[in-house]
Amino acid sequence: MCLSLIGCDSAGEARVLRMAHGLDTPHPVHFALEHLGADLSQRSSGRHEVAPHFSLDEHTAVPDVLLIGTRAWDQLSSEERGWLSASIRDSVIFQRTLWQKATTEALAAVQAAGVDVTRPPKEPFVQRVSDLRRGYPPDTVVGELVERIVATQ
Q1: pLDDT in tens, 45-62
Q2: Rg (CA), the chain
Q3: Mean pLDDT within 92-104
């Protein structure tokens, strides 16, 4: 899904941008966001100097992912697989605690730097992307993932 400051490359990502924000990729606002992204990457002192307003809309989230190759997994004994699985389950709880602490500290830091943080309502965004969600039938791989995501809310 393309909701970044870098730009959209595929037709699907451009469709998401149009549906979620009502803008085509070549829209002047999109170009302004690209320019802002480039400007931000050149400044080492912080985003808040360029963009003193932040919308905490939570419509994107970066998951932490742990992968293990089948070859490596197959080489583990049943006991080792159990140890690894238990460690992973335990680490999820710990990682969520660390992530929440880091998020809270980062938010406090930007607010202390004078950034105006707003929390817009999610419902208008959910309504705008409902057509996109319907485009993935539940009997498809992506449709199943969409349903699982929606069910967690």
Answers
A1: 566 677 788 888 876 777
A2: 20
A3: 88
